[in-house]
Structures are given as C-alpha cells and as structure tokens.
Amino acid sequence: MGISWKILEEDFLVVLYLVGAGPGSHDFVTPAAQKAVKKSDLIIGSERILELFDEKGEKLIFNGENVRERLKEGIKRAAQGETVSIISTGDPGFSGVLKPVNEIIEDLDINVDVHVIPGISSIQLCAARLLLPWNHADILTLHGGKDAEIFNIIDNGKPTILLPSKDPSETASFLIENGVDPHRKVAICERLSYPDERVMKMKLKDVKNSKFNYMCVMVIY
To answer: Which of 169, 166, 160 is CA-nearest to residue 219?
Structure first.
C-alpha cells in the first residue's frame, strides 16, 4: 500500500522547525522557510539571520557564547507545545543547527516533533558562481578546528569545496605547513549573495598572505 505524504503532513503536528535561511540575502530565503517562521510563536537565530524575517513574534538571539543555551530553550518550549523556529544560516544539515539540536534532544530525553526546512547553502552558491558541478567535488567543513581529513581527499583529482576555519588565510597556512603545494589554485567566494560579494581566484600562498571576511567558502583545485 502506498504512502500518502499529504495525509502524513496534515496529521503530523510539527512544533519545532529547523529552518535554513540561505547564505544571507533575502533573495535566497525560500517560501517554505517564510511559511514556517510566520506560524511560529518563538523564533531563534543569530542577529544577522533574524533580520531576514519581519515577523512580530518573540525572538531570541544567539551568538557563539550562548547558542547551545538558546537551542535548549527552544527545544524545551517546543516540547511544551509552542511552535518554534530555530533558524540556521545556509542549510541546517551542513554546519548548521541540526547536529546540536539532535544532540540536545537526546541529552534531554524529551519528545519533540522536528521538521527540517532545507535552505540554500553557501556551498551550493559557491559552486554556482564558479560553474562547478558540486556532485563532482568533495565537500568538507573545517568549522570548529583543523580537520586532518582534508588530506585524505585533497589529491584525489576532484576540487575540494570547504568551509574554512575562521579566516581562509589560517586554513591556507595550515595546509601549506602540512605539505600542500603553495602554488595550488584556489578560489575564495566571500560574502556570497550580498551586494559586496567577491569571487577571487589565486594561489594558496596568496590566500595565506591575504585578509578576508569570515563569511567565505574556499575551493582548492
């Protein structure tokens, strides 16, 4: 017997939305994201990303220091029956809120219905800007540390698209210090979707000696 997704969607009470808001511009906020946020009693996200939504409901801002506490509060209030949207830059499933939310729900051992609203990742927009089919590239995040996993894939013949550590110059230094050719071709996509976005092509050694905004995607060819 087939499954009716329409019936499932109507019967399933979703009280916690994990909403992908895209890379930062209003142009990349999907109608599904707008719809979820509009119906929410509580909206949680960074100050930059909350500016994309003009709903008048209660809002909680998180930053690097209080993000886990804000996520926990949202989960608890959703479990109590409120409709809550936790907004993630890009897509919740890639360096977004999905992983920590799953961890917190497991730690709290509470029941909460979760619905993920996918968003457009900066990874996707970077690939589009560079005319790069991203299913033919390796994708990796170095957020939160210097991940040695990159050395298992960087020489496999595919471009490597990565979210670098806080500054791409730090990532370039890390790679060069660990034997990567300083003359490797690199692209840096900075502040994607914003009016001042930049797409730059250079060598790894030039990335090391340059300064960038923290909102960057890096491609190593």
So the answer is: 160
